[in-house]
Amino acid sequence: MLTFTTSDGTRLVIEETGAPDAPVTVLLLHAWTLSRRTWTRVAELLPKEVGGPVRVLRYDHRGHGDSAAPVTGSTTIAQLADDLAEVLTEVVPSGPVVLAGHSIGGMTIMALAERHPELFTARVAGVEFVNTSSGELGRDAPGLPAPLARAMVKAQLVHGRLLERRGARKIGPPTLLRPYLRWLLFGVGYERAHLRETSEIIAGSHPLTLHGFLSDVLAHNRTKALSALSSVPVVVLTGGRDRLTPPKHSRVIAEQLPRAQLVIYPGAGHMVPVERSHEAARLLAGMVRTALPVG
Q: Do residues 211 and 154 make contact, with C-beta atoms less than 8 angstroms apart?
């Protein structure tokens, strides 16, 4: 386990697996209110799928998992992108990097392209976007009538702010969240262990993480930033039953990047890294092999 302190003093926890001296590094970015644990199975599968050494890094975003709690004003996707730029510069100072981003993790990669486009020319050798969007999420209702969806968003904002004012460190008991998260996040044939772990991670999130990032996620609009990835191999994965970032969002990303590979898993939901971990690892491995130095 590694720790990294950003320029504004926020401590990030990074988990490293695979071969530290491998020629290619894969960096896995998790979703809002989740943690690096959602990428565990993909990280375990990657060396076998690559068929050789690969360095795999997963870290908890600020305000998530084991990383430091967020401070007011730092809960933005732009800040997550700056954190990613620092991790790339300091923890992975050389060699090609393949990035994979789930939900807000994918948005973070887009913000990185917007704020640090030079990294995609010099360092990034491939990108896997998973259950994410380049913008206009605020127009979507997750399988609900629009008024009810707006009320749900407002309730999350109010709940998070109330918990924070009360000094709470977590947002709620996991057992109470499971029925809602089962409907919201998972497709058909889900594994109960995945739902249980996901509920535990989300329930342990800091209240400021819950309400602080939500407004910025809804305001996120970085379709134009995708142009920085025009020469980078890209795969776009989503679930046909994704309620949070419906497949049309993945199609928009693929339309902006004509060379990108779009894959929609009909029965999967918003949790492709755990619902389709073998497929996600296999596609990442393909980009890793492409990035390997010749000779």
A: no
Residues paired with 59 in a beta bridge: 14, 29
pLDDT, residue 207, reads: 80
Q: 104 is written with which tokens? A: 């807000």
Could you give the 3-state DSSP secondary structure of residue 97? strand
Q: Which two tokens stand for residue 25?
A: 């590094």
| pTM listed for this prediction | 0.92
Per-residue confidence (pLDDT) for residue 161, from 0 to 100:
56
Structure tokens at 150: 């707006």
Dist. CA 262–CA 245, nearest whole Å? 15
β-pairing verdict for 261-265 and 234-239 = parallel
Within 13 Å, how many C-alpha atoms sit on residue 33's CB side? 27
For strand 2-5 and strand 11-18, is the pairing parallel, antiparallel, or unpaired?
antiparallel
253 versus 69: the higher-pLDDT residue is 253
For the segment 147-168, the average pLDDT, to the nearest whole number, is: 54
- The neighbouring-strand residues paired with 262 are 236
Question: For residues 41 and 187, what is the distance between their CA atoms, to the nearest angstrom?
Answer: 18
Q: What is the enclosing helix (H) or strand (E) of 252? A: helix 247-256
Given a cut of 80, is residue 147 above it in pLDDT? no
The string of pLDDT tens digits covering residues 255-289 is: 999 899 999 999 999 999 999 999 999 999 999 99
Instruction: Output the six-digit token pair for 15.
Output: 């988990």
Q: HEC profile for 189-234?
A: CCCHHHHHHHHHHHHCCCHHHHHHHHHHHHHCECCHHHHHHCCCCE
The third-level CATH classification (topology) of the domain covering 2-137+222-291 is Rossmann fold (3.40.50)
